[in-house]
Amino acid sequence: MSSSELNKSRRSMLILLAVFIIPVVLAKLALNQQWFNYGVTNQGQLIANELTLAKLGLNVDDFEHQWLMLYTLPAQCDVQCEKVLVSVNNTYIALGKEMPRVKPVALTQAGLTTSQAEKINSKKWHIQAMPALAKIEIKQSQVLIVDPLGNVILSHIPPKSDKQLPQFGKSILADFKKLLKYSRIG
Hints:
Blueprint: H1 3-33, E1 45-46, E2 67-72, H2 79-94, E3 102-108, H3 114-119, E4 126-129, H4 132-137, E5 142-146, E6 152-156, H5 165-182
Parallel strand pairs: 2-3, 3-4
Antiparallel strand pairs: 1-6, 2-5, 5-6
């Protein structure tokens, strides 16, 4: 073998090794340095402590064993609260063919005004006064995703600004679509 053929052979071998070794090294670095947010598929916050409808003072049979989009309204529903209510209603409508599997529920502390009720399709919504147990368990306004067995799974905290409302609705919708896709119940 001539020296040029030997150099060509070595170069080919080094390129071949680099093609197989560099991706493994980069993957190991990415894993160790936590370059990616791996293992997270949900948009909302998973509920760490066991929380059920019974602990909130609600009866699961009242909701016909459906998935629930449970919005807990604050004590004073201001303009931002109304916008969140409309956003949650629009998210419910965006479920499309999956709408019959989901029941939107509003837990109010002071009841809905007529203007608030007009902004949503109140025939589809289950509007109820917030039970005393729910006031103890739930400290802030949020949208909870509840499975047909009455377990609270995810929580979405409403945004403070109007600019974040579309993303808020999209994150709820993404979580619901994923849950409904893999669920055989409800």
